[in-house]
Each structure stands twice: as C-alpha cells, then as structure tokens.
Amino acid sequence: MKRRVNEIFDECIEAIKNNEKTVEECLSKYGKISPEFEAMLKASVKLIEAAKFTPTAERKQQARAKLLEAVEKKRWELGIEGNRIGRHAAKAPRWRAVLLRVGIGAVAIAMLSGTTVALAQGSLPGSPLYPVKIAVEKARIGLTMDKAKKGELYLGAAKERISELKKLKQNDSYRQDLLNATAEDIGLADKAFDGSHSKEFEEALDGMAQKNREVLEDVLEKVPPSAKPALQRALINATGDESQKSEGQKKDIGNGNGNGSQGKNGSENYDKAPTTNSSNKPGSFEKGNVKERAPSIFTPTTTLGPSNYGQEKHENSSPEQNNRKSTLLSTDTSRGFSHGLINTIMSLLGSDHGVFETIAKTGLLGK
Amino acid sequence: MDNVVKLKKIVERAKNYDSEAFGQLYDMYFDKVFGYAYYKVGNRHEAEDIAEQVFLRALENISGFEWRGIPFSAWLLRIASNLVIDYYRSSKYKTVDIENEVDLMLDNNHNPEQSAIREFDRKEVIKAIQELTEEQQQVITMRFIAGMTNEEVAKAINKNVGAVKALQHRAIGSLSRILGETYGET
Fold first, then answer.
1. B19–A88 C-beta distance less than 8 A
2. What is the DSSP string of A225-265?
3. Could you give the number of structural domains in chain A?
4. Do B30 and A64 touch (CB under 8 A)?
5. A73 and chain B: CB distance < 8 Å anywhere?
6. pLDDT (tens digit, 9 = 90+) per residue, A52-63?
C-alpha cells in the first residue's frame, strides 16, 4: 500500500511539473490517499516554482566563452588537428624547438610566397589550397606587431570569410564553419583594437554591414559579448540606410524588409551618416553576388580569374576554366607540394603567432 | 532512446575535444548544473562560478568518462557536488551569508513585489532542502532542480526506481512539514 502511495504521488508530481494537472485536479482524482497528501503536493509546487531560477544571460555567455577557449587550449596542448576549414589548425607541441619552428616557418613562407599563395587566394573551404590561404592569413596577422593593424587584418579575414560564404551554396556543409569563423575574427578584431580604436572598429563594422547585412545577422549570435553591441549598432545602421535608400529609389517595396526602417531597437539613433554604396544589394547573400574583395593585403599577386579554384560544386567558372584549373590542380607535384607544405606550416603556425612575432623581431623576413 | 543515442554521439565528439560538441553539452546542462549548485550553496554568484568550474573540470576529465549506465548529467552533478564540498571547506563560504544574501536580479515576467515573494520562497525552500538527509537532498535536487527522471536518478545513486520514489516521497513529506512551519500552516 505504501508503494502505491509513492507511485500516485510521483505520478501527480510529474503531471504538475509538466503542467498537465493542477494540485486540485490531483486531489479530486485521488482524494486524500494520505493525511499529508495535499500539503505534500503544495510543497512540491513550491519546489517546482523555486526551481525556475536561471543564471544571468551575461554570466552564462561569459562562462560559455571561457569553456570554448579552454577547449581550444586543450586542443593545442594535445596537438589535435583543426576543424574542417582549418581555423584552429593543429598547433605544434611545446617541445618543438622555437628555432626550428622559426627556421622552417620562414622557409615555408618564402616558398609559399609565389604562385601557390596566389592560387590559394581564391580558394574555398574544401579546396586543397584553402589551408594555404588560412596559413598565409595567420602568418600576416602573426607578423603584425601593431594592435590596430592586427585588428584591421582580423576584419579583413572576416570579410574574406563572408566573401567565401557568398560563393557557397545555401546548403553547403561549410556554411556554419564559415559563420563561426567570421564571428571569431570579428571578436578577435575587437580584442585587438582593445577599446582604444573602437571608433575605427565600429566604422569598419558599419562598412561591412552595409554590404553584408544578412550574413552578419546570422553571425551576430555567435560573436563574443564584447563585440556584440558594435555589430548590433552596425546592423541597425545598415537596416536604416537600406530602408532610406529603398524609399528614395521607390523600389523593392514588399521585398521582405518592411520592418527594417526602424532597426531592431526602433527609436535608437546612433548618429551615423548613411553610407551610399552602389554594390549594396538587399538579399545579396547568394552564390555569385560577390562585389567586394578583402583588403589589398589579400589580393593575389597573380590574377587567376574566378576564385572558385578546384571547387567542382561552385559554378562560377566556365568549363574551359574549370578544365584548366583541374588539370593544374590534379598534378601530383601541385597536390604533394600543397599538402606537405601546408601540413608543415599549419602545424607550425596554429593560431599562436608568437613564432611569427619572433621572426619579425629578428628581421629574418624583412618588413 | 533517440535522444540518448544523440547525446552519446555528442559526448563522443566532446571526448575528442570538439568545440561544437562542448558548446552543445554546455547549452544542454548549464542551467541544470547551476540550479543544482544554487540549491546547494544558496548564492547566485557562487552557483554561477561553480557551474562554470564544473564544465572546465568536465573538459579536463572527459577522456575518463565512460557510459556505464550512469547518465552524463549525473556525472556533471557529481563534479558539481565535489565543487560544492570544496566551497564549504573554503574561506569563501564563511564570508557569504545565505540568510542576508539578496538577489537583486528581478524576474523578467514579474514586478518587484512578485519577485521579492518568489525570492523569499526560494530562500525558504533552500533552507528546507538543507535540513533533509544527504540522500534525500540528492534525490530532490536531481529530480526537481536538474530535471532528471526517476530512472536516471536511480542509476546515479545506485538504487532502484522504487527506492527513488520512496526517498522522494519521504523528502517531500519532510519539506512540507518544514515549510508548513515557516508559513504557519501547521
């Protein structure tokens, strides 16, 4: 009989927890199965109510960022390979001699500075040359001592990721990786600017948001808390500019941006002059709509035409161009060269740029 | 069952230090771990710190985690439990007065008066839970705060489901008496 009371009590608690029954309904269904049944159900309700207590959103996000940072550190300590797009490439174990890293790194960069780098510039995730592109980006950032310049390079990297995103198909499996990478670069840029150049950072974000509002809306939830307000403001500004422009031109009515004129926070005014931008197209987050390239630092030294090198699934190139590229890429020397070298470089580089700072200080590579 | 398979896959990825998998586990369990810690220490800030530490410690120890019938949530709560013990041993604990600790965070959906009442109730429930036996506290926090099923609690504390229900019944019986005294209902 005692067991039966436990069962009924548990059933009632479960139903109350799931909002399927009230205390009164339980009492009317089971009556007073024990003298303290009613008081116990009421105590359970107090317990259920008291359990609806959550940590603050800000603290929760901070703890999340800290955990993910610790995961990355762990990966580095263990020398685990990076994710698919090479953002967190394997870092060399600490026991490797710094001098060896400096020496090999310098040689590798020198070797990569020619055609391979140029070829890699237009590559997309999944391409054999893509890791070269990321390695070069990392090296450039690592070699930069000035914080503001570093911030600019991170923003350049974020722009490049967006540019890559636009070239991918909507259902491409690399989309999430690229969105995460964009958010990470924006966060790193914010960190590099370190508050002292926040105006520059905000203006750069404004410019990015003008051209890439939809992508950046997807990125917003992924950026670290410190960078979020600036990005939010940039998006609000971009939305406002867009609606002003569409009103002025009396077109695009009912294109899904009907709520955009006030921005997300309605009446907020951030005192930013609208930027006119002829390449700004609402809804341009599609394959083949790329108008801008990353800053000049990413510009290839050799012009190669369309940037989807080696990507069969990207359809920007003509069949002739694709044939030419795949012939080039399929040569064993090219593949062997890029894979071997890239693996070496990526294992040397990681995202800890200390080695490159050391190289820069020694003047080994010049300025 | 489907969820269990999904969770196992996430944990396996986390064992390979996959950031995304860790992020998913964090999103799934942070609130529960926080709730558990909160009911053990009765202080929001300490509970947030403990919950954060739980996941960092989980990262350090994930390679040793094995599925032996014990739910992943129970493994996290065990870490939390150890950290709570550390907390009570620390000097930090002596400087925090649960009785006078006022949580100024207001619930989004309630006015200040309602929030104050809820806060009072919450503190009373915490004090009442702390008067239960260790075993009863475990069952109550796992069932109500961490939202675990009877089966999961049974596996976590190495008892059968019937014993868990009996423990729960006795624990709530005690709670209703303690709370009844607090609210003058006895």
1. yes
2. TTTHHHHHHHHHHHHHHHHHHHHHHT--TTSS-TTGGG-TT
3. 2
4. yes
5. no
6. 788 888 899 999
B51·A63 Cβ contact <8 A: yes
Token code pair at residue B168:
């729960």
Q: Are residue B9 and residue B94 in the same domain, yes or no?
A: yes
Judge whether A36 is closer than 8 Å to chain B, CB to CB.
Answer: yes
* Cβ distance of B22 and A67 shorter than 8 Å: yes
Question: pLDDT tens digit string along B18-43?
Answer: 989 999 999 999 999 999 998 888 88
Is the pLDDT score of A152 beyond 80? Answer: yes
Q: Which two three-digit tokens encode residue A138?
A: 């990392």
Residue span of the structural domain in which A25 resides:
2-50
The residue type at A199 = K
B121 touches chain A (CB under 8 A): yes
Residues B60 and B114 in one domain: no
pLDDT of residue B34: 93
Are the Cβ atoms of B168 and A6 closer than 8 angstroms? yes
Identify the domain containing residue B164 by its residue range: 103-186
Nearest Cα of chain A lies from the Cα of B136 at a distance, in angstroms, of 14
Q: Are residues A154 and A276 in the same domain?
A: yes
Q: Which residues make Cβ contacts (< 8 Å) with residue B99, sequence separation at least 6?
A: B123
Query: Looking at the structure, do residues A31 and A85 belong to the same domain, yes or no?
Result: no
Q: Over the stretch A182-199, which tens digit does the pLDDT of each residue have?
A: 888 888 888 888 755 577
Tell me, yes or no, whether B142 and B185 share the same domain.
yes
Amino acid in the structure at residue A105: G
More confident residue, A75 or B73: B73
